[in-house]
């Protein structure tokens, strides 16, 4: 099985998270979204990543791809068997996926006002899921589900922002914060982000023109890391933890 990917795409990350948790082996091919290859344009109906390529053909849309991975592979299911519970899980998953681009916009905000406006929209999702969270550690208790793999994308990126800038999207959501911490402990979920993800993420969202990029520079000044140091794993360990 092959996933066609763009390195910092949240929709790809949700699919890779499901593959990793299910311990399915897969290949990844990265493409440029500004110069899409012809074979990709033929294969992907919307011209978007992710697509999944199997001998049987091509699947598109990260939601159906994740469900296929869950049903077709592995000896356990991320989705509950019970139809009512499964429908509930799908609804919470949709809330996460509907907010991936909201979070991207929040992270790319150019000034404090637009950060606050975008974060207010994103926060309504955190507010809703917080009410649905039980005693944890994961969404439905001790077993990971697809709600966890879908929400991990938002929570992992909020974690990176907090580490780099000291700005916490989850400040007002203590239960979501606990869930974030529990999911960050799951190695399979951490593998949903490719190598050098932090640097690429920071280059895109924390450059000098974004408000969060400016916060990162202030934060680094406070902890003695040069403002042009790259936001890599070592810098995070030295500065931001
Ligand atoms: N609804 C799609 C959204 C996928 C999506 O927006 N992918 C972005 C990258 S994160 C993309 O391929 N953008 C290129 C384009 O739209 O031309 C899914 O869930 O898979």
Element layout with pairings:
Layout: E1 2-5, H1 10-21, E2 27-30, H2 38-43, E3 51-54, E4 57-60, H3 62-72, H4 83-98, H5 100-107, H6 112-132, H7 146-165, H8 174-184, H9 187-190, H10 197-205, H11 211-222, H12 233-240
Parallel strand pairs: 1-2
Antiparallel strand pairs: 1-3, 3-4
The structure holds glutathione.
Residues 6, 9, 11, 33, 47-50, 61-63 line the site of glutathione.
Structural features, described:
The protein is α+β, with helices and mostly antiparallel strands and 241 residues long. It contains twelve helices and four strands; from the N terminus they run E-H-E-H-E-E-H-H-H-H-H-H-H-H-H-H. A hairpin with a 2-residue loop joins strand 3 (51-54) and strand 4. Helix 7 (146-165) packs across helix 8 (174-184). The longest helix is centred in the middle third of the chain and has 21 residues, at 112-132. The termini are far apart. The structure holds glutathione. Glutathione (GSH) binds next to helix 3.
Give the gist of this structure.
The chain is an alpha+beta fold and 241 residues long.
State the strand order across the main sheet. 2-1-3-4
Computed CA radius of gyration, to the nearest angstrom: 18 Å
Count up the helices: 12
CATH uppermost class of the largest domain:
Mainly Alpha
- Give the total of domains: 3
What does the overall shape look like? globular
Give the terminus-to-terminus CA distance: 37 Å
Share of β-strand residues: 5-15%
Mean pLDDT across the residues is 94
Helix content range of the residues, please? Answer: 55-70%
| Number of extended strands | 4
Classify the fold: give the CATH topology of the largest domain: Glutathione S-transferase Yfyf (Class Pi), Chain A, domain 2
């Amino acid at each position: 099985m092959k996933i066609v990917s763009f390195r910092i795409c949240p929709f790809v990350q949700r699919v890779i998270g499901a593959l990793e948790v299910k311990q399915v082996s897969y290949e990844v091919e990265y493409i440029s979204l500004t110069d899409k290859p012809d074979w990709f344009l033929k294969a992907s109906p919307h011209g978007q990543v992710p697509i999944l390529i199997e001998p049987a053909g091509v699947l598109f849309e990260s939601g159906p791809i994740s469900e296929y991975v869950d049903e077709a592979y592995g000896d356990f299911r991320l989705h509950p068997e019970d139809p009512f519970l499964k429908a509930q899980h799908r609804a919470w998953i949709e809330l996460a996926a509907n907010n991936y681009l909201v979070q991207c916009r929040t992270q790319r905000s150019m000034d404090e006002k637009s950060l606050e406006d975008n974060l207010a929209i994103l926060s309504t999702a955190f507010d809703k899921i917080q009410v649905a969270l039980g005693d944890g550690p994961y969404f439905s208790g001790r077993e990971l589900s697809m709600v966890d793999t879908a929400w991990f994308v938002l929570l992992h990126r909020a974690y990176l922002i907090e580490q780099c800038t000291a700005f916490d999207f989850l400040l007002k959501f203590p239960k979501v914060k606990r869930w974030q911490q529990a999911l960050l402990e799951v190695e399979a979920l951490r593998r949903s982000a490719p190598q050098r993800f932090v640097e690429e993420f920071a280059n895109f969202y924390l450059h000098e023109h974004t408000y969060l990029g400016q916060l990162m520079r202030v934060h680094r000044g406070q902890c003695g890391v040069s403002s042009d140091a790259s936001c890599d794993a070592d810098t995070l360990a030295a500065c931001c933890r």
